[in-house]
Amino acid sequence: MPESAAPTVIAKPPQLVFEGLWAFAPNRDTLGGTAYFLKLPHGNWLIDAPAWHAETRAFLEEQGGLNGLFLTHRGAFGKAIAIQQHFNCDLVVQEQEAYLLPGARVTTFEREQAIAPQLAAIWTCGHTPGSACLYWEGQGGVLFTGRHLLPTREGGVAPLRTAKTFHWPRQLRNTQLLCDRFNPETLNWICPGASSGLMRGRKAIASAYERLQQLDWSGLSEAQPLL
C-alpha cells in the first residue's frame, strides 16, 4: 500500500499592522523571530528576514520588490543573503555583525545613521554586540526593536536577560538612552522582533514611550539570566 502523501504546509500571509506595514509569521530560521515589511514612497524595506519561500517572494514582488533589508541582530539574519541576491537590495547591519554575512554586499553603520527618508538605524548593543533598532517616523513614530525590547505578559515592553545576552548593563543603558532620545510625540509604537505570542494577535505595542518610562530599572538591573 503506498504511503500517504505528506500534508501540504500552507504559509500564513503577512498580517497588516498599519497602512503600508505588514508583519510576517514567526520564522523558524530565526528561532521564531518576527520580520516586518514596510512599503514607503521612496522604496520598500524588510526589517529582519522572514521565512524565505515562494509565498514570501510573491508577496514582495507584488508590492514592488525591495530597496533594502535592515537586520536588527545576528539572530535575525535567516536567509538574508538569498533575499538580497533575489532582489539586488541593500543589506544594512551594525558594523560589528557584518562579518557574519560573508559574500554579501553589506552597508554598515556605527551608532546612529539615516539609511533612507524617514528611517534611522540606532545601535543598541546588549542583546548582541551589534544589536540595533530601526526607527520609522510614520504613524507617530515606530521603533522596530528586534530582540532588544520584547513584549511582556502584562502588555508592556522590556529588555530580556537570557543566558546568551552579550552585555546586560549595556543593554539597560541603551534602553535608557531610547527614553532620552524620544518623547511621547515621537515614539508611539514598538514592533518587537520576537515573542509575538504574548501580544494576543497584535503586532505593535501602543503608547510605546510611556511603557518605556514605566520600566523598573532597579529590578531589571538585578534580573537573573533566563535559560
Give the helix/strand layout.
Layout: E1 15-18, E2 21-23, E3 36-38, E4 45-47, H1 54-62, E5 68-70, H2 80-87, E6 90-94, E7 106-109, E8 112-116, E9 119-123, E10 132-136, E11 142-146, E12 150-151, E13 157-158, H3 168-181, E14 189-192, E15 205-206, H4 208-213, H5 217-221
Parallel strand pairs: 4-5, 5-6, 6-7, 11-14
Antiparallel strand pairs: 1-2, 2-3, 3-4, 8-9, 9-10, 10-11, 12-13, 14-15
Beta-strand share of residues? 15-25%
Low-confidence runs? 1-9
Strand order of the largest sheet: 1-2-3-4-5-6-7
Global morphology: globular
> In angstroms, what separates the terminal alpha carbons?
46 Å
Name the helix and strand elements from N-terminus to C-terminus, one letter apiece: EEEEHEHEEEEEEEEHEEHH
Q: Work out the helicity level.
A: 10-25%
Average pLDDT reading: 92
E-strand count: 15
Kindly provide the radius of gyration, computed on alpha-carbon positions and rounded to a whole number of angstroms. 17 Å
What is the helix tally?
Answer: 5
- Major beta sheet, specifics? 7 strands, mixed
Output the structural class: alpha/beta
Task: Report a brief summary of the structure.
This protein is an alpha/beta fold and 227 residues long. It has five helices and 15 strands.
Output the keywords:
227 residues; alpha/beta; 15 strands; globular; disordered N terminus
